[in-house]
Amino acid sequence: MVGLCHDTAGWGGDTTPVEGLSVARRGIAHFQAARLRALRAARGLTQGELATAIEVGRRSVTLWETGGRAPDLAVLVRLVAVLGCDIADLVVVPAQERTLLSLRILSGLSQEAAATALGWSRQTLYAVETGERAPSDDQRATLARVYRCAAADVSAAAVVTADLRHRDLQAKLHSSPDSR
Predict the structure, then answer these.
(1) Kind of pairing, strands 25-28 and 5-7?
(2) How far apart are CA 72 and CA 10, in angstroms?
(3) How far, in Å, are 12, 18, 163, 170 from residue 167 at the CA level?
(4) pLDDT tens digit sequence for 115-142
């Protein structure tokens, strides 16, 4: 799984047909359970205290810390605020696997918030994040500004996103009944 989101909750309908960018119902991919546990302990918080601070049940924190689930983006943003860390401290995506979607998640923006900040429609952002449409040079510069990352990171993520879409389309083509 190269994409970053595994959960439609809190994503305003972010669903992606591209396999490498797919959305399931388990929270943010690449979420680091052990890091959450260590950061919580370092802050001297119990699971219950953290749960109360971010307005979730203690069971959710337990599931996140054991790797049974991962939080959605809205909760992740609250988590990092309470723990005094960055999203990248809890979500580690290897550089060679970063997609345009993962850059958005690492910036802490929902699809709706990112589209608004970019001055794009959600449909345009969706098309760019799924590799359906390659971002222009100007769009890449805008993405870098809004996501607070280097333009080179956006360019590299655009290549990964396009490659994933290409592989997914090839796999679908070869697995279709007409191709046999």
Answers:
(1) antiparallel
(2) 6
(3) 26, 9, 6, 5
(4) 999 999 999 999 999 999 999 999 999 9
Residue 13 scores a pLDDT above 50: no
Q: Please count the CA atoms within 13 angstroms of the CA of 162 that sit on its side-chain side.
A: 9
State the Cα–Cα distance between residues 77 and 178, nearest whole angstrom.
45
| Per-residue exposure over 144-166, b if at least 16 CB sit within 10 Å of its own CB, e if not | bebbebeeebbebbbebbbebbe
Residues pairing with 27 in the sheet? 6
- Structural domains in the chain, CATH included, are 5-90 (1.10.260.40), 95-179 (1.10.260.40)
The reported pTM is 0.80
User: In angstroms, rounded to a whole number, what is the distance separating the alpha carbons of residues 129 and 173?
Assistant: 21
Give which of 49, 45, 82, 79 is closest to 64, Cα–Cα.
79
Tokens of 27: 């929270």
> What are φ and ψ of residue 124, in 5° steps?
-65, -45
